[in-house]
């Protein structure tokens, strides 16, 4: 495998995990925290490869080519379990709920000896989507995990999880990368320079999200649609805002994605109001952002950002979506 486990950035994290494997100091649980698309899942899977590779190039250095490495990369290894939130029909869904029965099932699996590798590895994706019962059940699992089990959690930030879960995990906080690093990576992958720069900005330095923008044109189209809707809503009368709120609240996951896009936009506005030198995320909307920044003072810009952040937190706590959407839209600044 190439240097740094073939991961863009996060060298310090790769180095630390490599050392844990090489020295036989592997913890029984790790939490990879950071914004979606920053590389949490990739790092967790590479670590699973480092733990179980059949032909490591050196201690803690997976080959990436053996059967085990390939199966783990495809998330189809018999000693690897990937657990994530599901919808009402039990299908994996971002923005769904990770349920207690999923944790209980994995408890039984983890107690069995590994099928063909040194470790059984369980990867819990977006653990902030676990309900209270599932969180408490995981706590029990963490307390009683057998020596051959390694539990890897991902979450947006540790503060969303129970403090007792955090205290039992080695926490690695992954930060967004410099825009230039993500842009260079996309150019290296054959993306034309101007588009690569735009995608790097929109991703906010998250390589996984930048690659999604490349691979799936609908992600960019959806973002464009959501930002256009926001522009239309700012001067819109109350009745139109109520109507949009009703439509928005019908699909919780789409609502969450919409608020995330709007939040990145308002953060850009706040940066410009504050006169910060930080690069914009929505660089293609620079004119609009400058216009809004000229019409708002710092306290209003801060308030809008914090209202969007608060709305996302309330969605995690299953507050009434329609009411949430109405309050958010009615509180948008008049410009």
Strand percentage: 5-15%
CATH class of the largest domain reads Alpha Beta
Number of strands: 5
* Total domain modules: 3
CATH architecture of the largest domain: 3-Layer(aba) Sandwich
Task: State mean pLDDT (0 to 100 scale).
Answer: 92
> End-to-end span in angstroms?
53 Å
Output the structural class: alpha/beta
- The number of helical runs is 15
Our Rg estimate from Cα atoms comes to: 21 Å
The CATH superfamily of the largest domain appears as P-loop containing nucleotide triphosphate hydrolases
Q: Per the principal axes of the C-alpha atoms, what is the gross shape?
A: globular
Write down the CATH topology of the largest domain. Rossmann fold
Question: Level of helix content?
Answer: 40-55%
Strand order of the largest sheet: 2-3-4-1-5
Order of helices and strands: HEHHEHEHEHEHHHHHHHHH
């Amino acid at each position: 495998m190439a240097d740094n486990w073939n991961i863009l950035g996060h060298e310090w994290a790769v180095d630390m995990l490599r050392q844990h494997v090489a020295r036989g100091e592997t913890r029984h649980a790790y939490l990879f925290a950071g914004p979606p698309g920053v590389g949490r899942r990739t790092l967790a899977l590479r670590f699973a490869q480092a733990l179980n590779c059949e032909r490591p190039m050196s201690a803690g250095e997976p080959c990436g080519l053996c059967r085990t490495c390939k199966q783990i990369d495809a998330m189809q290894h018999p000693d690897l379990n990937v657990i994530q939130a599901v919808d009402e029909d039990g299908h994996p869904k971002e923005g769904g709920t990770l349920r207690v029965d999923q944790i209980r099932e994995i408890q039984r699996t983890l107690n069995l000896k590994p099928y063909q590798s040194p470790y059984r590895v369980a990867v819990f994706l977006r653990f902030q989507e676990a309900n209270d019962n599932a969180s408490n059940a995981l706590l029990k699992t963490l307390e009683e995990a057998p020596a051959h089990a390694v539990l890897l959690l991902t979450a947006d930030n540790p503060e969303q999880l129970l403090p007792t879960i955090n205290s039992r995990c080695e926490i690695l906080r992954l930060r967004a990368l410099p825009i230039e690093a993500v842009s260079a990576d996309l150019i290296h992958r054959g993306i034309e320079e101007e588009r690569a720069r735009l995608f790097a900005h929109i991703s906010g330095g998250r390589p996984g999200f930048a690659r999604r923008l490349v691979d799936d044109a609908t992600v960019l189209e959806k973002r464009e649609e959501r930002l256009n809707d926001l522009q239309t809503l700012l001067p819109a009368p109350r009745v139109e805002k109520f109507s949009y709120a009703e439509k928005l609240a019908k699909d919780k996951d789409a609502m969450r994605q919409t608020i995330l896009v709007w939040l990145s936009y308002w953060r850009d506005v706040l940066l410009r109001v504050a006169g910060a030198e930080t690069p914009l995320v929505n660089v293609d909307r620079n004119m609009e952002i400058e216009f809004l920044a000229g019409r708002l003072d710092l306290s209003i810009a801060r308030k809008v950002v914090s209202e969007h952040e608060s709305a996302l937190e309330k969605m995690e706590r299953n507050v009434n979506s329609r009411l949430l959407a109405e309050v958010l839209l009615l509180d948008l600044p008049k410009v």
